[in-house]
Amino acid sequence: MISRQLSTMSGTVPPIVSVVPSRALVDEKIKVLVENLPPGSPVTLHSLHHSEDRDYWEAYGHYVSDHRGTVSVAKDLSFGGTYTGKEAMGLLWSMHPVPGSRKGLRLRKRDVCSPMLVNISVHSGHIAEGFRQQPPLASALIERWYMAPGVQRISIKETGVRGTLFIPPGPGPFPGLLDLWGGGGGLLEYRSSLIASHGFASLALEYLSSDDQYPLFSIIEAAFSILKDHPQVIPERVGIFGLSLGSILTIFFTAESAVIKPFCCVCISGSHIYPSGKMLLMCAVTCDGRKLNKVRLDENNHHIWRDVGRAIFHTPSNQVDVGKVNCPMLLVNGLDDQNWPTVESAEDMAEKMNAVGKGHLLTRLEYPDTGHLIEPPFSPHFRATNFIVEATKEKVIMLWGGQTKPHSDAQEDSWRKILAFLQHHLYSSLTPKVKL
Description:
The longest helix has 24 residues, at 404-427. This protein has helices at residues 90-93, 190-196, 216-229, 245-256, 280-283, 306-313, 342-355, 404-427, and strands at 4-5, 16-20, 23-25, 31-35, 42-50, 56-64, 71-72, 96-97, 116-124, 138-145, 152-158, 161-167, 174-180, 201-205, 233-243, 265-268, 286-287, 290-291, 296-297, 303-304, 329-334, 362-367, 384-389, 394-399. The relative contact order is 0.11. The chain is globular, with a radius of gyration of 23 Å. The chain is an alpha/beta fold. It has 2 domains: 4-145, Sandwich (Immunoglobulin-like), CATH 2.60.40.2240; 152-427, Rossmann fold. The strands form 6 sheets. An 8-stranded mixed β-sheet has the order 11-12-14-13-15-16-21-22, sandwiched between helices. Strands 1, 3, 5, 6, 8, 9 and 10 form a 7-stranded mixed β-sheet that branches. The chain is built from 8 helices and 24 strands.
């Protein structure tokens, strides 16, 4: 527990902010407690994070101390701020860029070997601005980690494969997961490192490459083989975890690949469209350099791609034959996904798999008022963020959808169920595979 006493409101004993645990994984809950306040005092709890991109993110809640002069974020009501009600983790999931920040920001951890540092402070009165100008009554600095102690981080660079392998602590071997992010590209490690912290060897793969020497499909197949053949990985217990474009590719490889035979799959915000060649879903949004008329703009000029997905999805020749899927698959989707028709796709997949007697392999999670970017729990909600369209390199602001509170609830609930799904299928010796 880390706490700094800075000043007093009244009396001789200074207020104290305590956070337990002060050092934890990002998916662990914390308890924030303020003590030594005058009874019935209005105070504001504030969180502040300075990101690796040098942007400031904050959240705050308005509280009134009880008869003992304490405020418990988990037990007491927030009467206003970026969240309201009893929300133990509101100071984290309701974070947003401070006023005056750049538009379209998204908070993502790049260096998983260092923690996210969050300063939690208490201020006199109910305030909504000027936190950095007003000295706090007390504050505490906490560490939020994506990588648990003992997790190994191994850089992979071979046969066109660029990624990072995370191995859990302990003797092993462990079940494995190939981690495929979306069409924004880049090497993102934070989900894989968190997965490894829960006992699964995970390979975060950068599969969108401008190097035509290594085609997209070959990169993913080679990465799957590298993971499966690692001495710390159980070769017959390797799955795939995809988001957005990564989920589209996961579904395709699961149904069609002669090389990749996953034991189970998790697909967040994807669909069963057929990725032809070096497809890069983003290229489907342009035609001869011109945007298709299916791309819509909202009142804020945010790009909405749902109708683009519908146009592709409703052409039967563009659909993967999901009747060929032979492993358990978990689909996680938001009912307010403004980027892609993921729910419609899930319904069609269920219908087609039921028709061939494989409906039992499919598990669906759907969440109201939840958008496309379903992240690990207590991550901020991003309704619209900057995005570079692969085909044109144009920078736009993409509308992902969702409302902050229900989206955040969905992130917490889905992560718990994803881990349970992976634990059940990858660690259980009783889970039968469908005969080919």
